[in-house]
## 1
Amino acid sequence: MKTVLFIDTPVLVNILSIPHMNQDDDKVHEQLKKCVYEDKAILILPLATIIETGNHIAHISDGRIRRGMAQKMATYLEMTVNGAAPWVYNDNEIEADDLLKIAQNFPRYAMQMEMGIGDLSIISACNKYKKRVGKGTDVRIWSLDKHLSAYENIDWSVSED
């Protein structure tokens, strides 16, 4: 069975080794090698992960480190676009209908699970990808956050509360 993993922000910040956010970088780098070389998994870099990671970099207090991390991130993004990264970018992952579902469900998930819009957009993209590829592919989110790594499917039916 083919495996597809959507990369969450805590994983990417460890891959980049962003200071004060990279406490799991050895473990993440080992998992990355396993995913790419042993499992031959398809890794997908969602837009939310790119934006959240960029925001973390922009808030690094030491300008020298901030510039180095920003350049490293820019290089990774260029590699992604050019097909030289171990992951691919998921084009057109959020359409107007997806954004509407996220907006309708955000208050409930923010309160019940402390889940942000970035997480919900990754789940939305993952759900859409699962529907597109069907049951022969294992589609998951690679995260260090329990609420995302344990994710199966989110019910987008809007509650009346």
Note: Residues 63-81 form the longest helix (19 residues).
## 2
Amino acid sequence: MYPKADLIRRFVAYLIDSVLVAILSIIPVLGPIVGATYILLRDGFDFGFMRYKSLGKSIMKLEVVAFGKENKQSDFNISLNRNWVLTLAPVISIVPVIGTAIGVFVGVIVVLTEGIKIIIDSNGRRFGDGFANTQVVLASALAEK
């Protein structure tokens, strides 16, 4: 395990990704699907500056470390395992009227639960990290090892 990543950086990274998804969600029908797909796969992209991390993590200089893998980098499979729980709310929200209300409720519960887990866990691991055997760390922590 690595030292716990700075909580403010993690929050800002999540906020950046959430704003991106909110902007995408404005697009009728396709927007929420693209947004949920981004959340699901965000730690597996291998685009220039987004090397196996989300846009928010890239900007905040955070990395996803995958334990038990030789390259210790995230990929789409790891991202799916880390982030599926975060897509529950958008998927539920697809159902007209009642889905939106239930989706908002589920989203709040999931974000609060995951956030509290990050705060109380000694390594800053949320439940998604447990599912994928990962940890979010400062990029500089990887350079030191």
Note: Residues 92 and 103 are 5 Å apart (CA to CA).
